[in-house]
Amino acid sequence: MAEAPFGLQVGPLENPVAPDLPFYPTAPVELDEVARLDVVYRNVVELPVSPDELFEIFEDPVSWTRWAIGIGEVEWTSEKPFGVGTTRTVRFWGGMEVYETFMGWERGRCMAFFFTGITQDVWWRFCERYDVEPTPSGSRLTWSVAYTPRGVFAKIHFLVRPMMAVAFKLFLVRLRRYCGRRA
Q1: Residue 171: which of 17, 63, 36, 75 has the closest Cα?
Q2: Could you tell me which of 108, 130, 111 has the C-alpha nearest to residue 49?
Q3: What is d(CA 143, CA 157) in angstroms, rounded to the nearest whole number?
Q4: Mean pLDDT of the chain
Q5: Closest by alpha carbon to 143, among 177, 178, 105, 112?
Q6: Whether 83 contacts 105, CB under 8 Å
């Protein structure tokens, strides 16, 4: 099989999580690399919940399906307490699954993960970082999403990028509403 960037195989490979689905390996990302990937989105939102309450929301698998459009199911595949090395599977409405490993976890302050593999040929690398600061009225979340696109997605990315920027901002509007209902 041909080699691809980051020493990965092109795929699809045998899926270690869901044998009936394809598996495209993705490269790991270090916590300090997030801002240096090919594509980076960074958004900030003020939330009416404390940092600890926000992490309760992040740890709740059902909450993601309420505010993150497109997520159909979140399955934590590691036991609590969550930390660096924790794993999770996220299933999207269109059938894509992503397999995540957490590279950062400091409850109430920082949570970050990268994809270890996906079921569609979309990214070579993908990661998210959630930095949280307390504020007088709750917390401030700085959310960074970064990736290196691949395949057809890389070719059409110039068309998709503006829509993704809007979608990520909408996610945070929905998260703020979700937090407001919990507060």
Answers
A1: 63
A2: 108
A3: 21
A4: 95
A5: 112
A6: yes
| Token pair for 71 | 């997520």
pLDDT digits (tens, 9 = 90+) for 134-146: 999 999 999 999 9
Range 41-51 burial, b when 16+ CB lie within 10 A, else e: beeebebbbbb
Amino acid identity of 149? P
pLDDT digits (tens, 9 = 90+) for 1-38: 455 788 888 879 999 999 999 999 999 999 999 999 99
What are the beta bridge partners of residue 126?
Answer: 147
The model's pLDDT over 53-78, given as tens digits with 9 standing for 90+, comes to 999 999 999 999 999 999 999 999 99
Cα–Cα distances (Å) from 75 to 123, 138, 143, in that order, read 21, 27, 21
Tokens standing for residue 3: 């080699």
Measuring CA to CA, how many Å separate 52 from each of 55, 58, 112, 145? 5, 10, 16, 22
Structural domains present in the chain: 11-182 (3.30.530.20)
Task: Collect all residues with Cβ–Cβ distance below 8 Å to 118 and sequence separation of at least 6.
Answer: 23, 24, 26, 96, 97, 98, 99, 126
Task: Tell me the whole-structure pTM to 2 decimals.
Answer: 0.95
